[in-house]
Structure formats: structure tokens, C-alpha cells
Amino acid sequence: MRILLVEDERRLSNVIKKGLEEDGYAVDTAFDGEEGQFMAESESYDLIILDCLLPKFDGITLCKNIRKKGHKTPILMLTAKSAIEDKVLGLDSGADDYMTKPFSFLELRSRVRALIRRTSRDSTTTLTVADLVVDPLKHTVERGGKNIAFTPKEFSILEFLLHHKDEVVTRTMVTEHVWDYNFEGMSNVVDVFLANLRKKIDKNTSKKLIHTVHGVGYKISEVA
Ligand code: CA
Q1: For ion ligand 1, residues whose CB falls within 5 Å
Q2: What distance in Å separates the CA atoms of residue 147 and residue 144, rounded to the nearest whole number?
């Protein structure tokens, strides 16, 4: 899951980015309206977090511009304290939710999850394939009733595969959704993570769930 954060207060931006990354999201940051719009249009995001007051042009204008171009990405607006008009404007402009500053990270995290869940194709709480059960809210993974420990990044990749159950997912799709804009890693990093995922999920079972589609990518499915 990939998030764009447009917030000009560097300290707040860093705190939000760090917290969301610990939850396994890839987070790109922009610091003014213009930069935010450029990134929103050039990349594909699962959620956009927008501050209302930004240099160059404000978050409400940015939100309207994004909607005008037909992007349906959920947008969470951050507004100044008790600025009731900001909230109304924010929702009128096509934002899906808003939060008033100051807010706690815990509150932000639950709003982020709710928005991503609301718009993801699978509206049920848990994601499953065969006897594999993943709970995005509790961050748990079970196979055959047995709990398996996952790092945030591994979890994020697994969640992405499950959102595309029975479909082929390319390495580029995984990279774009799980790592941020500044990511420059080994070219085989996705393969390394997938190998770990396999070890955790498919080792010692006769029914393999993660399949390699040669020359293309990966697929999570009950059938190869
Ligand atoms: Ca601001």
C-alpha cells in the first residue's frame, strides 16, 4: 500500500512518514501544492493525505484538481485547529475524510486503515486464500490455524498479493506499491522478499499458495 503525504511542516511530515512506514506502508512526501499535484498525477497511490494550508497552492485546490482529473484515490485532509470552514470546504472539494490538528498518530493510523479498507476491492476484514488467513487490522497471518510472524514489509507485500488474488502481479507492481519514490534497492529485492514469504507460508505444506509466473511475476492462488 502506497501513500502520498503532502504536508509542509517538516517535523510533522517526518513523524507521520515514520509511523506509517512502521506499519508497512510506503510513503512519498511532498511539501507544497505544486509538488503534491505533480506526484499525485505521476504515481499511483492507495491514499493521499493533504494538509489544508500549503505553499504555492492550498490543499483544497489540490484536492479539487485531483478530482477534476478523475482520480478516485481516497483523500484524507488535515485541517488547522477548529477551522470548521476548512472541514466543510475539504469535504466539498472531494476529500473522503478530514482530521483536525493536533491529532494523535493512533487516530491518524485508524483513519488511514479505514479509508484504505473502504476503497479496497475486498471489503471484508480478513483476506483469505485456502487456509491462509490475513487480518490487516490486527496485522496477523495464520496458515492452517497456526500463527506466523511477519515483518511490516513482508506483511505489506502479502497484503498486496491478496488484494490481487488469482491474478499475476509483476515485480514492478510490487515495488511501486510497497516501496517509496526514493527506493533504490537491489533489482532482485522483490524476489528475495517473495522467497521469504514462501518459506513462511508454503514450507512443509503440500498445497503451495505462492506461484512464480516465469518472466512475469507472482500469483497467490489455490491453483497454480
Ligand atoms: Ca501547513
Answers
A1: 8, 51, 53
A2: 8
